[in-house]
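We now fix the convention by which a protein and its fold are recorded. The integers have meaning only within a learned vocabulary of local backbone shapes. A complete example follows; check for yourself that the lines match position by position.
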Amino acid sequence: MVCLPLNMSEDGIRFGRWRLLPRTRTLVAGDERVVLGGRAADILLALIEADGAVVDKDALIRRAWAGRTVEDGNLPVQIAALRRAFGAEGAEIVITVPGRGYRFGGARLAPPAPIQLAAVRPAGPEPSTRGPSLAVLPFRTAGSDADQTHIADGLVEDLITALSRIRWFFVLARNSAFSFRGRDVPASEIGRELGVRYVVTGTVRRAGERVRVNVDLIDTVEGVPAWSERFDHTLDEVFALQDRIVGSIVAALEPGLRRAEIERLRRRPTELPRAYEAYLRAVACMHPMTRDNCAAALGFLDQALAIDPDFALALAAAAYCRMWRVSQAFPDDTEAEAAAAIRLAEAALAQARDDPQVLAQVAIVFVYLVHRLDAALLLVKRAVELHPNSAMTRSSAGWAYLYADQPEEAIRHLEEALRLDPLDPGAGEPLTGMCYAHLVAGRPQTAVRWGERAIAGSPERLSAHRAYVAALGLAGLSAEAAVTHLMTLDPAFNLTDYRHLHSRRATTRLLAAVVEGLRRAGIPERPNPSARPTLRIVRGG
């Protein structure tokens, strides 16, 4: 038994004004919520378990990196991130003991009577209250043909999407699962780090037009396969291959799955395998989204649409990519790019009004380019209803509610997106949304921390830099370095054009908060005459 001077209740570990929710790695203090990274959460739990005693650096590294050899500089980075999560109290809660290590100072902030508990950290992954919890890991490719990777990744993406549509499954999102690519880690450790009971692993071997896939469903607590099978199909039968794998996993975990749910999983995005293969290549390019990756994705999407012009997923993805390019100020002619995005979004919606991914991507295009908030909210509500366990759907819902001037509802969906995909290294979209939402809600100090995380995850995302600068300005913190960096990335950035560009789509509160923060931080009112031409205003319906 471990005796800690903390208040440990069913809803987390309490100390001072803080509450730690180990299952979701979330710190809560009043209205403030901070999602910790996996290693930062492990370090905090190790310090809490030590009950105020010093924990040396080697012990913390063993705990957070599970015994793997890492550079000494990795630990201070995690300690700094953990302290930032606590704000001004960080140095009092995570205390450095020079030459020895670190200790937890939270106990002295709140000394209620000790409570006995068996362990702060569960012996194994905490089971999801939503039913079986699982992660589909990147499938390995056998042989020397590098062209197999997009087939393997596409199959994994489809499995994640199909399984997460089952309402009583908790399926970790793509980017967190893909953080284990190329790492030889025991299943038990993966389950602990990701917080899931089961992991799906596999290998893909392509020989000409045939594909062989070996799949294992592993129980991370018992450390043994719950099910294994080999599948042989031609490339033209890729959809049948997906059906068989999903059906087998479902049968192993939930034998009583309703027939209607199984039929819903079998709906086809396109009946043309070559169009689908081009789409999979595009999706691979979109992780992470950068200028070059976006251009490459659009090239593959154009190929897919040339084969199947009614392919709704490709239409929606192309619309989203073009909208993203406008948001980052990449194209020279933003008006033409925006018009193309709107046409693609409307075409996608006409083809698939019940596909949650299409609904979510179209909703963001409607929000950002034409300020059709009522339509966008209807679309994201339907998308979440159809696919509540999708990080992308939740992130889109968060942004729609943010632009609809409902920051608390936005935060709820964005937090859920981060919970579903906690290890996504490029989660710039939900992180930036959290920064903006806390700005609108009047919590600039919290917004600063989210802005830091957004920039760390997506350093090329201009919107993240703008949100961060605005947060620093409203928080009254020094913004000189951040402003210099933003103006280096976007030399023509100025308040007049920004205000004009966003006045037709941002709500009064959102626009007012951001512009005021940017002004206080030192963003110029007028453009620099020597800078490149500023963005033209999008004209849309």
Summary: Residues 423-541 form a domain with the Serine Threonine Protein Phosphatase 5, Tetratricopeptide repeat fold (CATH 1.25.40). The longest helix spans residues 334-351. Residues 49 and 344 are 54 Å apart (CA to CA).
